[in-house]
Specification:
The chain is 0% helix and 35% strand. With 93 residues, it is mostly beta strands. The protein has a single domain, classed as OB fold (Dihydrolipoamide Acetyltransferase, E2P) (Beta Barrel). It has a 5-stranded antiparallel beta sheet, with no helix packed on it. The radius of gyration is 13 Å and the shape is globular. The two termini are 20 Å apart. InterPro entries: Vgr_OB-fold_dom_sf.
Length: 93
């Protein structure tokens, strides 16, 4: 699962961003909730900026216990494809 979003905040080292999903809610055209502190993929960090359009993907399993390293981590829930498990995987033109 993935969606397009616009970057509204970027931390100093460009490793986390807040993003606004661009697709409006179907019923009333209202904006969807911001996604907060979304990890930014390494290859995106050279290109991302405020107002960039990004592809946000949602991982199969919870990443709440992932510390950002290559170490294995324990799942904290059975949730799948959740907004809390978003990662920015691409910066679009």
């Amino acid at each position: 699962m993935a969606q397009l979003a616009r970057v509204t905040y970027l931390n100093e080292n460009k490793t986390q961003a807040n993003v606004q999903p661009m697709a409006l809610n179907y019923k009333d055209d209202s904006k969807r909730s911001l996604l907060i502190n979304v990890p930014v993929g390494k290859t995106c960090q050279n290109f991302i900026g405020i107002n960039s359009v990004v592809l946000v993907t949602f991982l199969d399993r919870s990443i709440s216990n992932w510390d950002g390293t290559n170490k294995d981590f324990k799942l904290d829930s059975k949730r799948m494809h959740d907004l809390n498990d978003a990662v920015i995987t691409e910066v679009l033109p």
